[in-house]
Amino acid sequence: MGDPLRRMILVIALLSCVTLCLGVTAVNTPIKIGLNEVQSGLAGVNAPVPNNAPAANPPAKAAAAPVQAPQESVTVLEQDSGTNLTKMNITFTNSPSYSSAQAVRFTPPKSGWNLENILVMATDGWNATSKEQPKPLPFTIEIRDANYTLLYHYEGIQLPYFTNSNGVRMAAIDVPIMPMKEDFFVCFYGYGSIPLATELQNATGNSYYYDEQTSQLYRGVLPLRNNQTVPVNWLIRVAGQ
Protein backbone atom coordinates (compact mmCIF):
# COMPACT_ATOMS: atom_id res chain seq x y z
CA MET A 1 0.00 0.00 0.00
CA GLY A 2 1.42 3.39 -0.97
CA ASP A 3 2.26 6.15 1.50
CA PRO A 4 -0.68 8.43 0.54
CA LEU A 5 -3.15 5.60 1.08
CA ARG A 6 -1.54 4.63 4.36
CA ARG A 7 -1.76 8.22 5.58
CA MET A 8 -5.41 8.38 4.60
CA ILE A 9 -6.20 5.27 6.64
CA LEU A 10 -4.30 6.64 9.62
CA VAL A 11 -6.17 9.94 9.34
CA ILE A 12 -9.47 8.06 9.41
CA ALA A 13 -8.36 6.21 12.54
CA LEU A 14 -7.08 9.40 14.15
CA LEU A 15 -10.31 11.26 13.48
CA SER A 16 -12.27 8.40 14.99
CA CYS A 17 -10.05 8.46 18.05
CA VAL A 18 -10.36 12.23 18.45
CA THR A 19 -14.13 12.03 18.09
CA LEU A 20 -14.34 9.39 20.79
CA CYS A 21 -12.05 11.26 23.15
CA LEU A 22 -14.33 14.29 22.99
CA GLY A 23 -17.06 12.27 24.63
CA VAL A 24 -15.10 9.80 26.78
CA THR A 25 -12.92 11.03 29.61
CA ALA A 26 -12.60 7.78 31.54
CA VAL A 27 -12.84 4.13 30.61
CA ASN A 28 -15.77 2.26 32.11
CA THR A 29 -15.09 -0.84 34.17
CA PRO A 30 -14.87 -3.73 31.69
CA ILE A 31 -17.72 -6.22 31.70
CA LYS A 32 -16.53 -9.79 32.17
CA ILE A 33 -18.49 -12.81 31.01
CA GLY A 34 -17.50 -16.47 31.04
CA LEU A 35 -17.64 -18.77 28.02
CA ASN A 36 -20.15 -21.00 29.81
CA GLU A 37 -22.45 -17.98 30.07
CA VAL A 38 -22.01 -17.28 26.37
CA GLN A 39 -22.85 -20.86 25.48
CA SER A 40 -25.89 -20.98 27.76
CA GLY A 41 -26.97 -17.48 26.74
CA LEU A 42 -28.09 -16.94 30.35
CA ALA A 43 -31.65 -17.26 29.07
CA GLY A 44 -32.09 -20.48 27.14
CA VAL A 45 -29.48 -22.02 24.88
CA ASN A 46 -27.22 -19.83 22.78
CA ALA A 47 -26.62 -22.56 20.23
CA PRO A 48 -23.57 -22.35 17.95
CA VAL A 49 -24.27 -20.36 14.81
CA PRO A 50 -24.13 -22.48 11.62
CA ASN A 51 -21.72 -21.45 8.88
CA ASN A 52 -23.16 -18.68 6.69
CA ALA A 53 -26.11 -18.17 9.03
CA PRO A 54 -27.91 -14.83 8.58
CA ALA A 55 -27.62 -12.07 11.14
CA ALA A 56 -29.72 -12.63 14.25
CA ASN A 57 -31.42 -9.25 14.13
CA PRO A 58 -32.40 -6.85 11.36
CA PRO A 59 -29.60 -4.29 10.97
CA ALA A 60 -30.15 -0.93 12.58
CA LYS A 61 -29.14 0.38 9.17
CA ALA A 62 -27.68 -1.15 6.03
CA ALA A 63 -24.99 -3.46 7.38
CA ALA A 64 -21.42 -2.87 6.30
CA ALA A 65 -22.35 0.31 4.50
CA PRO A 66 -19.25 1.46 2.58
CA VAL A 67 -17.90 4.85 3.63
CA GLN A 68 -15.89 6.39 0.81
CA ALA A 69 -12.86 8.42 1.89
CA PRO A 70 -12.65 11.72 0.00
CA GLN A 71 -10.50 11.65 -3.15
CA GLU A 72 -9.43 8.08 -2.43
CA SER A 73 -10.75 4.67 -3.34
CA VAL A 74 -10.46 3.43 0.25
CA THR A 75 -13.67 1.94 1.64
CA VAL A 76 -14.26 1.59 5.38
CA LEU A 77 -16.75 -1.14 6.31
CA GLU A 78 -18.67 -0.73 9.58
CA GLN A 79 -20.80 -3.40 11.27
CA ASP A 80 -21.77 -1.23 14.22
CA SER A 81 -24.67 1.22 13.97
CA GLY A 82 -22.50 3.96 12.43
CA THR A 83 -23.72 6.43 15.07
CA ASN A 84 -21.33 9.27 15.92
CA LEU A 85 -19.01 7.89 18.58
CA THR A 86 -19.77 10.76 20.95
CA LYS A 87 -23.41 9.64 20.96
CA MET A 88 -22.87 5.89 21.14
CA ASN A 89 -23.74 4.01 24.32
CA ILE A 90 -20.34 2.35 24.72
CA THR A 91 -18.81 0.09 27.33
CA PHE A 92 -15.70 -2.12 27.23
CA THR A 93 -15.83 -5.91 27.31
CA ASN A 94 -13.35 -8.77 27.49
CA SER A 95 -13.46 -11.97 25.49
CA PRO A 96 -14.99 -14.68 27.69
CA SER A 97 -11.97 -17.01 27.78
CA TYR A 98 -8.34 -17.13 26.73
CA SER A 99 -9.18 -19.25 23.68
CA SER A 100 -12.20 -17.23 22.55
CA ALA A 101 -12.41 -14.06 20.49
CA GLN A 102 -14.82 -11.24 19.83
CA ALA A 103 -15.55 -11.53 16.12
CA VAL A 104 -17.28 -9.36 13.52
CA ARG A 105 -18.58 -10.57 10.16
CA PHE A 106 -18.04 -8.45 7.05
CA THR A 107 -19.23 -8.69 3.45
CA PRO A 108 -16.95 -7.34 0.70
CA PRO A 109 -18.68 -4.48 -1.16
CA LYS A 110 -17.62 -5.97 -4.49
CA SER A 111 -15.88 -9.01 -5.93
CA GLY A 112 -12.12 -8.78 -5.66
CA TRP A 113 -12.21 -6.13 -2.92
CA ASN A 114 -8.83 -5.98 -1.15
CA LEU A 115 -8.66 -5.92 2.63
CA GLU A 116 -5.74 -3.75 3.78
CA ASN A 117 -6.40 -2.44 7.30
CA ILE A 118 -8.23 -3.41 10.46
CA LEU A 119 -9.52 -0.70 12.80
CA VAL A 120 -10.02 -1.76 16.42
CA MET A 121 -11.16 0.42 19.33
CA ALA A 122 -9.90 -0.90 22.66
CA THR A 123 -8.14 0.07 25.88
CA ASP A 124 -5.44 -1.31 28.15
CA GLY A 125 -6.81 0.70 31.08
CA TRP A 126 -3.91 3.17 31.13
CA ASN A 127 -4.41 6.96 30.88
CA ALA A 128 -2.66 10.21 31.73
CA THR A 129 -3.71 10.00 35.38
CA SER A 130 -2.12 6.57 35.91
CA LYS A 131 0.72 6.60 38.40
CA GLU A 132 2.63 3.75 36.75
CA GLN A 133 3.88 3.31 33.23
CA PRO A 134 1.80 1.00 31.03
CA LYS A 135 2.87 -2.64 30.94
CA PRO A 136 3.14 -4.57 27.67
CA LEU A 137 0.13 -6.78 27.08
CA PRO A 138 -0.44 -9.25 24.22
CA PHE A 139 -3.33 -9.32 21.79
CA THR A 140 -4.10 -11.32 18.67
CA ILE A 141 -6.07 -10.60 15.51
CA GLU A 142 -7.22 -13.29 13.12
CA ILE A 143 -9.00 -13.15 9.78
CA ARG A 144 -11.16 -16.17 9.00
CA ASP A 145 -13.28 -16.99 5.98
CA ALA A 146 -16.99 -17.82 6.01
CA ASN A 147 -16.17 -21.41 7.05
CA TYR A 148 -13.91 -20.19 9.88
CA THR A 149 -10.74 -21.26 8.07
CA LEU A 150 -7.78 -19.18 9.24
CA LEU A 151 -6.54 -16.75 6.57
CA TYR A 152 -4.26 -14.51 8.62
CA HIS A 153 -2.88 -14.44 12.17
CA TYR A 154 -1.23 -11.47 13.89
CA GLU A 155 0.19 -11.28 17.39
CA GLY A 156 1.13 -7.90 18.86
CA ILE A 157 1.73 -5.85 21.98
CA GLN A 158 -0.79 -3.14 22.82
CA LEU A 159 1.60 -0.25 23.54
CA PRO A 160 1.76 1.27 20.01
CA TYR A 161 -1.89 0.47 19.31
CA PHE A 162 -4.16 0.92 22.32
CA THR A 163 -2.16 2.80 24.95
CA ASN A 164 -3.33 6.40 24.97
CA SER A 165 -3.35 9.30 27.44
CA ASN A 166 -7.14 9.55 27.01
CA GLY A 167 -7.59 5.93 28.03
CA VAL A 168 -8.92 4.54 24.74
CA ARG A 169 -7.84 4.51 21.13
CA MET A 170 -8.95 3.24 17.75
CA ALA A 171 -5.87 1.64 16.20
CA ALA A 172 -5.24 1.08 12.49
CA ILE A 173 -3.49 -2.26 12.00
CA ASP A 174 -1.95 -3.02 8.61
CA VAL A 175 -2.46 -6.49 7.16
CA PRO A 176 -1.10 -7.99 3.93
CA ILE A 177 -3.32 -7.10 0.98
CA MET A 178 -5.96 -9.83 0.85
CA PRO A 179 -8.55 -10.15 -1.94
CA MET A 180 -11.88 -11.04 -0.31
CA LYS A 181 -14.53 -12.79 -2.40
CA GLU A 182 -17.02 -13.76 0.33
CA ASP A 183 -18.01 -13.03 3.90
CA PHE A 184 -15.16 -13.06 6.39
CA PHE A 185 -14.62 -12.61 10.11
CA VAL A 186 -12.18 -10.43 12.02
CA CYS A 187 -11.45 -11.97 15.43
CA PHE A 188 -9.94 -10.03 18.34
CA TYR A 189 -8.34 -11.79 21.30
CA GLY A 190 -7.76 -9.42 24.23
CA TYR A 191 -6.89 -12.22 26.68
CA GLY A 192 -8.84 -10.59 29.50
CA SER A 193 -6.55 -7.56 29.69
CA ILE A 194 -7.45 -5.46 26.63
CA PRO A 195 -11.21 -4.80 26.63
CA LEU A 196 -12.87 -4.05 23.31
CA ALA A 197 -15.22 -1.09 22.81
CA THR A 198 -18.79 -2.38 22.69
CA GLU A 199 -21.91 -0.58 21.48
CA LEU A 200 -24.89 -1.47 23.69
CA GLN A 201 -27.67 -0.31 21.37
CA ASN A 202 -28.70 -0.69 17.70
CA ALA A 203 -27.17 -4.15 17.29
CA THR A 204 -26.75 -5.17 13.66
CA GLY A 205 -26.48 -8.89 14.40
CA ASN A 206 -22.96 -9.19 12.99
CA SER A 207 -20.97 -9.45 16.24
CA TYR A 208 -20.12 -12.86 17.66
CA TYR A 209 -17.93 -14.86 20.01
CA TYR A 210 -15.63 -17.33 18.26
CA ASP A 211 -14.45 -20.34 20.27
CA GLU A 212 -11.11 -21.38 18.79
CA GLN A 213 -11.04 -24.74 20.57
CA THR A 214 -14.35 -25.94 19.12
CA SER A 215 -14.41 -23.77 15.96
CA GLN A 216 -17.89 -22.63 16.89
CA LEU A 217 -19.52 -19.22 16.64
CA TYR A 218 -21.95 -17.75 19.19
CA ARG A 219 -24.09 -14.63 19.07
CA GLY A 220 -22.46 -11.53 20.55
CA VAL A 221 -24.49 -10.80 23.66
CA LEU A 222 -23.93 -9.45 27.17
CA PRO A 223 -25.75 -10.48 30.35
CA LEU A 224 -28.51 -8.42 31.95
CA ARG A 225 -30.43 -8.95 35.14
CA ASN A 226 -33.20 -11.53 35.36
CA ASN A 227 -31.28 -13.98 33.17
CA GLN A 228 -31.69 -11.85 30.05
CA THR A 229 -29.13 -10.83 27.44
CA VAL A 230 -28.63 -7.87 25.12
CA PRO A 231 -27.11 -8.13 21.62
CA VAL A 232 -24.18 -5.77 21.04
CA ASN A 233 -21.80 -4.46 18.38
CA TRP A 234 -18.03 -4.84 18.75
CA LEU A 235 -16.18 -1.72 17.55
CA ILE A 236 -14.10 -3.42 14.84
CA ARG A 237 -14.01 -2.01 11.31
CA VAL A 238 -12.03 -2.83 8.19
CA ALA A 239 -10.65 -0.78 5.30
CA GLY A 240 -9.56 -1.62 1.78
CA GLN A 241 -10.19 -0.94 -1.89
Work out the number of β strands. Answer: 16
Largest sheet: 6 strands, antiparallel
Please identify the structural class as seen in this structure: mainly beta
Low-confidence stretches: 9-29, 35-45, 56-71
N- to C-terminal distance: 10 Å
Average pLDDT: 79
* Radius of gyration, taken over Cα atoms and rounded to an integer in Å: 17 Å
Tell me the number of structural domains.
Answer: 1
- Individual helix count: 3
What fraction strand? Answer: 35-45%
Give the H and E element order: HHEEEEEEEHEEEEEEEEE
| Shape designation | globular
Helix content: 10-25%
Strand order of the largest sheet: 7-6-9-4-11-12
Any descriptors?
241 residues; mainly beta; six-stranded antiparallel beta sheet; five-stranded antiparallel beta sheet; 3 helices; 13% helix; globular
Written description of the protein model:
The protein is mostly beta strands and 241 residues long. The protein has one domain. The chain contains three helices and 16 strands. The strands form four sheets. Strands 7-6-9-4-11-12 form a six-stranded antiparallel β-sheet. The chain has a five-stranded antiparallel β-sheet with strand order 1-2-16-5-8, covered by helices on one side. A three-stranded antiparallel β-sheet has the order 3-10-15, with no helix packed on it. A hairpin with a 6-residue loop joins strand 1 and strand 2. About 20% of the residues have low confidence.
Summarize, please.
It is built from three helices and 16 strands.
